[in-house]
Recover the amino acids of this structure.
């Protein structure tokens, strides 16, 4: 892995079979977590998809302005998937499997597999889930990262990158000859 593909989705709920994607953000970083390129897009959805949201989504997406943006525009999901694949093509080799990164990324992955199948084909089975670091650092050392809970895809993706950087700042790998650390 030479680059990381960060993703966050905002959806109408968590049920992958009945809920839909409202917003997508993706960021490609290098391994030092420096941003190489960003993409964000509101996804067009019909009024009935918004009407089917649960109370939490109605409140959260209403307060963030996302519901208003979806109602006033957005791009069709196939166009959004095309843009995501173009981003992947610019930063990853044609045969390279892309490691998906994010916070609780397994949930986003479920929506990718269901609603963005061409993108799903490019993904490696491995993922970098920042929430795993969160649990270890919180449980083991009491280190907490306070999230802003913005619930907008681009801001949440940027925050996930900053959060991983904060955890990695605690990690020290001993220098070895030949460039690899040996397990003790």
């Amino acid at each position: 892995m030479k680059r990381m593909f960060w993703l966050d989705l905002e959806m109408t709920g968590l049920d992958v079979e009945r809920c839909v994607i409202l917003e997508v953000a993706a960021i490609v970083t290098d391994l030092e977590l420096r941003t190489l390129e960003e993409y964000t897009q509101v996804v067009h959805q019909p009024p009935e998809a918004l009407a089917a949201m649960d109370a939490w989504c109605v409140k959260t997406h209403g307060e963030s302005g996302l519901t208003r943006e979806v109602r006033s525009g957005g791009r069709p999901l196939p166009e959004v998937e095309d843009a995501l694949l173009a981003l992947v093509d610019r930063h990853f080799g044609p045969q390279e499997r892309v490691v998906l990164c994010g916070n609780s990324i397994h949930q986003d992955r479920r929506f990718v597999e269901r609603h963005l199948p061409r993108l799903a084909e490019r993904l490696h089975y491995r993922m970098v889930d920042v929430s795993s670091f969160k649990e270890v650092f919180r449980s083991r050392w009491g280190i907490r990262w306070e999230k802003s809970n913005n619930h907008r895809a681009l801001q949440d993706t940027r925050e996930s990158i900053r959060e991983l950087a904060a955890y990695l700042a605690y990690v020290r790998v001993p220098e070895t000859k030949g460039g690899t650390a040996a397990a003790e």
Remarks:
- The CA atoms of residues 109 and 120 lie 8 Å apart.
- The first helix runs from residue 47 to 51.
- The beta strands are 3-11, 21-30, 35-42, 98-102, 123-129.
- Residues 3-171 form a domain with the Nucleotidyltransferase; domain 5 fold (CATH 3.30.420.10).
